[in-house]
Amino acid sequence: MGMQNSGRSGIVEFLRKKDVVFSAKIYGIDALAAMAQGLFASLLIGTIISTLGEQLKIPLFVEIGSYAKAVTGPAMAVAIGYALKSPLLVLFSLIAVGGAANALGGAGGPLAVYVVAIIAAETGKLVSKETKIDIIFTPLVTITIGVIAAMLCAPAIGAAASSVGRTIMWATELQPFFMGIIVSVIVGMILTLPISSAAICAALGLTGLAGGAAVAGCCAQMIGFAVMSFRENRWGGLAAQGLGTSMLQMGNIVKNPRIWIPPTVAAALTGPLSTCVFRLEMNGPAIASGMGTCGLVGQIGVYAGWIADIAAGKKGAVLPFDWTGLALVCFVLPALITLLISLPLRKAGWIKENDLKLDL
Predict the structure, then answer these.
(1) Taking residues 130-156, what's their average pLDDT?
(2) Is-above-0.90 flag for pTM?
(3) How many CB atoms lie within 10 A of CB 257?
(4) Torsion-angle region of 327 (φ positive above 0: left; ψ -120 to 50: alpha; else: beta)
(5) Residue 285, by phi and psi: left (phi above 0), alpha (psi -120 to 50) or beta?
(6) Closest of 96, 5, 82 to residue 41, by C-alpha
(7) pLDDT higher for 94 or 309?
């Protein structure tokens, strides 16, 4: 019994020394958030640059964008490795692992990269600096384990993620009103929680009408909180939340969950307007579905989808109705609805002075 306890404590100590911590926060929040940043710095920014090049007739920008998009898998894997505090040799080895997982994962590549990169990074950390030929052994183990894991798991993980995404999109096409509410509310709330809505949308490949509803929900949370808290946070808070993230309010939500009611109701109203009235679709990168107004990425993604549809012959032109729908769903209605709902809540004492105050 004593030997077993000693063995367990030795393993625990070794894992601690290697900074391998089995934590829901690290894997479910930190790694996911980092993956979204990797996606942003490759696929998303590449799409934006390419779209800009196509619209301005600058071939150089189109080429630059294509190179950025080509390294999507490696960028995600390295970002995840960084979040897991991987040693440099492990971090650099994840480039090959990410490329393999993304390619083998198909449409659900981001989720495959997420799972495989964690396996490879944690394995690489265990062997790092354990031999005198670390410069050979650590990359050898990290890449070998990672690519084998990708070969074994990535196709199934990618197919499962893609299937879930397709089911959500199919259900939204079938029942745009109810699914518009559900997708808008859930993705919007995920954006405000310390979880990456962008990474989840990317992993599921959430585009089309469902992607449009996701954009609506994210915008409702960001614009809603930005406008609702203007009296407490002024212009700095308006910019930080409206163009940054509503996640800044998470601490205040924990203290008073009622402040979450107005933007969430706004999401429930703008979601079906997006799907049923304006038919707002995200036909750009799926990651943009979960970005809302952060850097106006959601809106740029919708615009990129319009341009792609025009190029493919699916759409004749970008109409004034399209721009009106985008402006109303993403900016005007979230601000108005949230304000109208928050005023009686403030009067009733459900939302008190400084409940929405941020330390900016």
Answers:
(1) 95
(2) no
(3) 10
(4) alpha
(5) beta
(6) 82
(7) 94
Interatomic CA distance for residues 92 and 62, integer angstroms: 27
Distance separating alpha carbons of residues 171 and 179, to the nearest angstrom: 7
The residue written with tokens 């949370």 in the block is 221
The count of other CB atoms within 10 Å of the CB of residue 225 is: 34
198: which 2 tokens? 């962008």
Other beta carbons less than 10 A from residue 234's beta carbon: 11
- Give the whole-angstrom CA distance, residue 156 versus residue 110: 13
Residues β-bridged to residue 208: 282
Q: In this structure, is the dihedral angle defined by the CA atoms of residues 127, 131, 133 and 135, taken in order, positive or negative?
A: positive
How many residues does this entry show for the chain? 360
- Helix, strand or coil, per DSSP, at residue 355: coil
Distance (Å, whole) CA 144 – CA 156:
19
> Exposed, middle or buried: residue 350 (CB in 10 Å: 0-12, 13-18, 19+)?
middle
pLDDT tens-digit series, residues 167-224: 999 999 999 999 999 999 999 999 998 878 888 998 899 999 999 999 999 999 999 9
